[in-house]
Write a structure and sequence with these properties.
Blueprint: E1 15-20, H1 26-37, E2 43-47, H2 54-60, E3 67-70, H3 79-89, H4 100-114, H5 119-134, H6 142-151, H7 155-181, H8 194-202, H9 218-224, H10 234-247
Parallel strand pairs: 1-2
Antiparallel strand pairs: 1-3
Helix pairs in contact: 1-3, 1-8, 4-8, 5-6, 5-7, 7-10, 8-10
Bound molecules: glutathione.
Length: 254
Protein backbone atom coordinates (compact mmCIF):
# COMPACT_ATOMS: atom_id res chain seq x y z
CA UNK A 1 0.00 0.00 0.00
CA UNK A 2 1.33 3.43 -0.93
CA UNK A 3 0.58 5.73 2.01
CA UNK A 4 0.69 9.50 1.94
CA UNK A 5 1.43 11.81 4.84
CA UNK A 6 -1.29 13.78 6.63
CA UNK A 7 0.06 17.02 5.14
CA UNK A 8 -0.50 15.65 1.63
CA UNK A 9 -4.01 14.39 2.37
CA UNK A 10 -5.82 16.82 4.62
CA UNK A 11 -6.67 19.42 1.98
CA UNK A 12 -7.58 16.90 -0.73
CA UNK A 13 -11.19 16.24 -1.76
CA UNK A 14 -12.92 12.85 -1.55
CA UNK A 15 -12.20 10.07 0.90
CA UNK A 16 -9.04 9.94 2.97
CA UNK A 17 -8.51 6.79 5.06
CA UNK A 18 -5.91 6.75 7.80
CA UNK A 19 -4.77 3.13 8.15
CA UNK A 20 -2.20 1.38 10.34
CA UNK A 21 0.97 0.87 8.29
CA UNK A 22 3.10 -2.25 8.20
CA UNK A 23 0.87 -4.57 10.25
CA UNK A 24 -2.44 -6.31 9.47
CA UNK A 25 -4.39 -4.26 12.04
CA UNK A 26 -7.86 -5.75 11.55
CA UNK A 27 -9.88 -2.54 12.05
CA UNK A 28 -7.80 -0.83 9.38
CA UNK A 29 -7.84 -3.85 7.09
CA UNK A 30 -11.62 -4.08 7.31
CA UNK A 31 -12.09 -0.35 6.55
CA UNK A 32 -9.78 -0.67 3.54
CA UNK A 33 -11.57 -3.76 2.19
CA UNK A 34 -14.99 -2.09 2.54
CA UNK A 35 -14.02 0.61 0.07
CA UNK A 36 -12.00 -1.74 -2.15
CA UNK A 37 -14.99 -4.07 -2.37
CA UNK A 38 -17.17 -1.15 -3.42
CA UNK A 39 -14.45 0.11 -5.80
CA UNK A 40 -14.68 3.51 -4.15
CA UNK A 41 -11.40 5.44 -4.46
CA UNK A 42 -9.60 6.64 -1.33
CA UNK A 43 -6.29 8.14 -0.41
CA UNK A 44 -4.51 5.92 2.16
CA UNK A 45 -2.87 7.96 4.93
CA UNK A 46 -0.27 6.22 7.08
CA UNK A 47 -0.79 5.79 10.84
CA UNK A 48 1.92 4.21 12.99
CA UNK A 49 0.61 1.80 15.62
CA UNK A 50 1.30 2.72 19.26
CA UNK A 51 2.87 6.05 18.31
CA UNK A 52 1.90 9.64 18.93
CA UNK A 53 0.73 10.35 15.38
CA UNK A 54 0.74 14.06 16.21
CA UNK A 55 -0.26 15.24 12.71
CA UNK A 56 -3.13 12.78 12.50
CA UNK A 57 -4.28 13.93 15.92
CA UNK A 58 -4.09 17.60 14.97
CA UNK A 59 -6.16 16.89 11.83
CA UNK A 60 -8.75 14.41 13.12
CA UNK A 61 -8.56 14.41 16.92
CA UNK A 62 -7.49 10.73 16.88
CA UNK A 63 -4.16 8.95 17.21
CA UNK A 64 -5.23 5.44 16.25
CA UNK A 65 -6.70 3.97 13.07
CA UNK A 66 -8.79 3.70 11.04
CA UNK A 67 -10.03 7.24 10.57
CA UNK A 68 -12.22 7.98 7.54
CA UNK A 69 -12.46 11.61 6.45
CA UNK A 70 -14.90 12.26 3.63
CA UNK A 71 -14.85 15.71 2.01
CA UNK A 72 -15.16 18.31 4.79
CA UNK A 73 -17.24 16.07 7.08
CA UNK A 74 -16.32 15.13 10.64
CA UNK A 75 -13.86 12.22 10.91
CA UNK A 76 -15.41 8.78 11.40
CA UNK A 77 -13.57 6.26 13.55
CA UNK A 78 -15.99 3.54 14.64
CA UNK A 79 -16.56 0.49 12.44
CA UNK A 80 -20.31 1.11 12.36
CA UNK A 81 -20.05 4.67 11.12
CA UNK A 82 -17.42 3.68 8.55
CA UNK A 83 -19.68 0.95 7.15
CA UNK A 84 -22.63 3.35 7.01
CA UNK A 85 -20.57 6.07 5.32
CA UNK A 86 -19.53 3.50 2.70
CA UNK A 87 -23.14 2.42 2.16
CA UNK A 88 -24.20 6.02 1.63
CA UNK A 89 -21.46 7.13 -0.75
CA UNK A 90 -21.15 3.78 -2.54
CA UNK A 91 -24.44 1.91 -2.11
CA UNK A 92 -23.66 -0.82 -4.62
CA UNK A 93 -22.52 -3.51 -4.07
CA UNK A 94 -24.08 -3.34 -0.62
CA UNK A 95 -22.47 -4.99 2.38
CA UNK A 96 -25.77 -5.01 4.26
CA UNK A 97 -28.31 -7.82 4.05
CA UNK A 98 -31.87 -6.89 3.07
CA UNK A 99 -34.30 -6.57 5.99
CA UNK A 100 -33.98 -4.97 9.40
CA UNK A 101 -33.88 -8.28 11.32
CA UNK A 102 -30.95 -9.49 9.22
CA UNK A 103 -29.20 -6.14 9.61
CA UNK A 104 -29.64 -6.24 13.38
CA UNK A 105 -28.15 -9.73 13.39
CA UNK A 106 -25.23 -8.67 11.22
CA UNK A 107 -24.37 -5.63 13.34
CA UNK A 108 -24.67 -7.76 16.49
CA UNK A 109 -22.11 -10.22 15.11
CA UNK A 110 -19.67 -7.44 14.22
CA UNK A 111 -20.15 -5.92 17.67
CA UNK A 112 -18.99 -9.17 19.23
CA UNK A 113 -15.99 -9.28 16.88
CA UNK A 114 -14.84 -5.66 16.74
CA UNK A 115 -16.38 -3.41 19.41
CA UNK A 116 -14.94 -2.44 22.75
CA UNK A 117 -14.91 -5.56 24.92
CA UNK A 118 -15.35 -7.87 21.91
CA UNK A 119 -13.15 -10.63 20.51
CA UNK A 120 -10.38 -8.41 19.12
CA UNK A 121 -10.37 -6.22 22.20
CA UNK A 122 -9.81 -9.33 24.35
CA UNK A 123 -7.17 -10.68 21.98
CA UNK A 124 -5.36 -7.36 22.18
CA UNK A 125 -5.25 -7.63 25.98
CA UNK A 126 -3.68 -11.08 25.59
CA UNK A 127 -1.29 -9.72 22.98
CA UNK A 128 -0.12 -6.93 25.29
CA UNK A 129 0.54 -9.56 27.98
CA UNK A 130 2.61 -11.57 25.52
CA UNK A 131 4.60 -8.49 24.49
CA UNK A 132 5.40 -7.76 28.12
CA UNK A 133 6.45 -11.37 28.68
CA UNK A 134 8.74 -11.28 25.65
CA UNK A 135 11.14 -8.66 26.96
CA UNK A 136 12.36 -6.65 29.91
CA UNK A 137 14.02 -4.18 27.56
CA UNK A 138 12.46 -0.76 28.31
CA UNK A 139 12.58 0.15 24.59
CA UNK A 140 10.60 -2.94 23.66
CA UNK A 141 8.17 -2.24 26.48
CA UNK A 142 7.29 1.10 24.97
CA UNK A 143 4.79 -0.43 22.51
CA UNK A 144 2.87 -2.51 25.09
CA UNK A 145 2.99 0.43 27.51
CA UNK A 146 1.24 2.70 24.99
CA UNK A 147 -1.27 0.02 23.98
CA UNK A 148 -1.97 -0.89 27.62
CA UNK A 149 -2.77 2.73 28.44
CA UNK A 150 -4.94 3.18 25.33
CA UNK A 151 -6.92 -0.03 25.62
CA UNK A 152 -7.36 -0.67 29.33
CA UNK A 153 -4.92 -3.52 29.91
CA UNK A 154 -4.45 -4.84 33.43
CA UNK A 155 -3.63 -8.27 34.79
CA UNK A 156 -7.19 -9.13 35.80
CA UNK A 157 -8.64 -8.03 32.44
CA UNK A 158 -6.04 -10.05 30.53
CA UNK A 159 -6.82 -13.12 32.66
CA UNK A 160 -10.52 -12.93 31.78
CA UNK A 161 -9.79 -12.48 28.07
CA UNK A 162 -9.36 -16.14 27.14
CA UNK A 163 -12.82 -17.21 28.31
CA UNK A 164 -14.45 -14.23 26.63
CA UNK A 165 -12.69 -15.02 23.34
CA UNK A 166 -13.76 -18.67 23.49
CA UNK A 167 -17.36 -17.70 24.17
CA UNK A 168 -17.48 -15.39 21.13
CA UNK A 169 -15.66 -17.88 18.88
CA UNK A 170 -18.12 -20.62 19.89
CA UNK A 171 -21.07 -18.33 19.10
CA UNK A 172 -19.60 -17.49 15.67
CA UNK A 173 -18.99 -21.16 14.89
CA UNK A 174 -22.56 -22.06 15.96
CA UNK A 175 -23.87 -19.37 13.67
CA UNK A 176 -21.93 -20.70 10.68
CA UNK A 177 -23.06 -24.26 11.44
CA UNK A 178 -26.71 -23.24 11.54
CA UNK A 179 -26.30 -21.23 8.34
CA UNK A 180 -24.66 -24.25 6.66
CA UNK A 181 -27.61 -26.39 7.73
CA UNK A 182 -29.91 -24.04 5.84
CA UNK A 183 -27.66 -24.02 2.78
CA UNK A 184 -25.69 -20.76 3.23
CA UNK A 185 -21.91 -20.28 3.41
CA UNK A 186 -22.34 -16.79 4.89
CA UNK A 187 -22.97 -15.45 8.39
CA UNK A 188 -26.27 -13.74 7.57
CA UNK A 189 -28.75 -14.55 4.82
CA UNK A 190 -27.41 -16.04 1.64
CA UNK A 191 -24.82 -13.50 0.53
CA UNK A 192 -21.60 -11.71 1.46
CA UNK A 193 -22.09 -8.99 4.10
CA UNK A 194 -19.92 -6.86 6.35
CA UNK A 195 -20.06 -9.65 8.98
CA UNK A 196 -18.16 -11.99 6.65
CA UNK A 197 -15.68 -9.24 5.79
CA UNK A 198 -15.07 -8.35 9.45
CA UNK A 199 -14.62 -11.97 10.51
CA UNK A 200 -12.14 -12.56 7.66
CA UNK A 201 -10.02 -9.58 8.76
CA UNK A 202 -10.29 -10.20 12.49
CA UNK A 203 -9.53 -13.93 12.17
CA UNK A 204 -5.95 -12.77 11.50
CA UNK A 205 -5.77 -11.97 15.21
CA UNK A 206 -6.65 -15.56 16.09
CA UNK A 207 -5.00 -17.69 13.39
CA UNK A 208 -3.05 -15.49 10.98
CA UNK A 209 -2.86 -16.73 7.40
CA UNK A 210 0.49 -18.12 6.21
CA UNK A 211 3.40 -15.83 5.40
CA UNK A 212 2.73 -15.78 1.63
CA UNK A 213 -0.84 -14.50 2.17
CA UNK A 214 -0.26 -12.44 5.31
CA UNK A 215 3.34 -11.17 5.12
CA UNK A 216 3.32 -9.60 8.58
CA UNK A 217 6.53 -8.85 10.49
CA UNK A 218 7.83 -12.10 12.03
CA UNK A 219 8.02 -10.50 15.49
CA UNK A 220 4.24 -10.06 15.43
CA UNK A 221 3.27 -13.55 14.28
CA UNK A 222 3.53 -14.88 17.84
CA UNK A 223 1.44 -12.10 19.44
CA UNK A 224 -1.16 -12.29 16.62
CA UNK A 225 -1.57 -16.05 17.16
CA UNK A 226 -4.12 -16.88 19.86
CA UNK A 227 -2.93 -18.95 22.86
CA UNK A 228 -3.30 -22.73 22.68
CA UNK A 229 -6.21 -22.58 25.12
CA UNK A 230 -8.23 -20.80 22.42
CA UNK A 231 -10.88 -22.93 20.76
CA UNK A 232 -11.37 -21.87 17.15
CA UNK A 233 -13.56 -24.35 15.29
CA UNK A 234 -12.17 -25.16 11.81
CA UNK A 235 -15.47 -24.02 10.25
CA UNK A 236 -14.40 -20.45 11.12
CA UNK A 237 -11.10 -20.75 9.28
CA UNK A 238 -12.66 -22.48 6.26
CA UNK A 239 -15.14 -19.63 6.10
CA UNK A 240 -12.50 -16.88 6.28
CA UNK A 241 -10.35 -18.61 3.62
CA UNK A 242 -13.28 -18.78 1.25
CA UNK A 243 -14.31 -15.15 1.91
CA UNK A 244 -10.83 -13.97 0.90
CA UNK A 245 -10.83 -16.23 -2.15
CA UNK A 246 -14.27 -15.17 -3.31
CA UNK A 247 -14.54 -11.51 -2.30
CA UNK A 248 -11.32 -9.93 -0.98
CA UNK A 249 -7.87 -9.37 -2.43
CA UNK A 250 -4.85 -11.45 -1.39
CA UNK A 251 -2.12 -11.23 -0.24
CA UNK A 252 -2.96 -8.86 2.58
CA UNK A 253 -1.63 -5.40 1.86
CA UNK A 254 -0.66 -3.13 4.70
N1 LIG B 1 -12.08 3.01 16.44
C1 LIG B 1 -12.07 1.66 15.95
C2 LIG B 1 -11.05 0.82 16.69
C3 LIG B 1 -9.69 1.32 16.37
C4 LIG B 1 -8.58 0.55 16.98
O1 LIG B 1 -8.75 -0.15 18.00
N2 LIG B 1 -7.42 0.66 16.33
C5 LIG B 1 -6.26 -0.04 16.77
C6 LIG B 1 -6.07 -1.34 16.04
S1 LIG B 1 -5.73 -1.27 14.31
C7 LIG B 1 -5.01 0.79 16.62
O2 LIG B 1 -4.94 1.71 15.84
N3 LIG B 1 -4.02 0.39 17.41
C8 LIG B 1 -2.72 1.00 17.38
C9 LIG B 1 -2.69 2.32 18.08
O3 LIG B 1 -3.47 2.54 19.03
O4 LIG B 1 -1.86 3.13 17.67
C10 LIG B 1 -13.46 1.08 16.00
O5 LIG B 1 -14.13 1.18 17.00
O6 LIG B 1 -13.91 0.53 14.99
Amino acid sequence: MEYVKVADAKDKPGLRLALTMGVPGPWSQAAKYIFEYKRFPFLPVGQLGARENAELHAWTGHRNAPVAVYEDQAPRVGWYEIIMLAERIAPSPSLLPPGSAARAEMFGLITEIASEGGLAWQRRLQMIDQMYAASDDPKVRQTPDVLAARYGHNVAAAQRAGDLCNDILAMLADKLRSQAASGSDYFVGDGFTAADLYWACFSQLVTPMAEDLNPMPMRLRGPYTAPETTVCNPILITHRDSMYTRHLSLPLDF
